[in-house]
Design goal:
Helix content: 25-40%
Oligomer: single chain
Order of helices and strands: EEHHEEEHEHEHE
Structural class: alpha+beta
Shape: globular
Strand order of the largest sheet: 1-2-3-4-5-6-8-7
Number of strands: 8
Strand content: 25-35%
């Protein structure tokens, strides 16, 4: 996934980017910590779904995405083991931006690239768990809060405001 911006570039992330991604995650997701091994596994299992934003050579944001099972978002800080042979969703595990790149269109640009990646992969939908009051952001890209009663308990492991969101892909 590569997206050129006026002030930077989203480029494919690699395992050598792990320290930068972990540093960003540690700063942004204080309430949702994950071990380095979790991030490393996502990079290894589906590198084409992982990207790093660099501005003037400095890593300032990342995203981790992968094919998965619909309505079964992975629990926080749990290894996947493997990706499903027959995925039923394209899952957005994380998009994290440091404050210095917020407001420059970086998040919107990578979301559009993720949607294109999901469409190219033949996914019927994209899904995610929205946290930190991000429902309005995701709604702008066609994601809808979707009630899945089986997820109620899992969503509470994030926080009381976490919401499962889905964007259908026309097909």
């Amino acid at each position: 996934m590569q997206v050129d911006l006026e002030r930077g570039v989203w480029r494919p992330a690699t395992e050598r980017d792990l320290p930068a991604i972990v540093a960003i995650a540690d700063e942004i997701h204080v309430a949702y910590p994950e071990d380095d091994a979790i991030i490393a596994e996502r990079l290894r299992l589906y590198p084409r779904g992982c990207a790093l934003l660099e501005v003037a050579g400095k890593p300032l944001a990342y995203t981790l995405t992968h094919p998965w099972h619909y309505a079964e978002p992975p629990a926080l800080n749990v290894m996947l083991g493997a990706l499903p042979e027959h995925a039923t969703t394209y899952y957005i595990h994380d998009i994290a931006l440091l404050s210095e790149v917020r407001g420059m269109g970086a998040a919107g640009a990578i979301v559009k690239a993720i949607i294109a990646e999901a469409e190219a992969a033949g996914a019927p939908n994209l899904s995610l768990v929205a946290v930190n009051g991000s429902v309005p952001f995701w709604s702008r890209f066609g994601f809808v809060v979707t009630e899945e009663p089986a997820l109620t308990k899992k969503l509470l492991t994030y926080d009381a405001d976490a919401r499962f969101m889905v964007r259908r892909i026309a097909g």
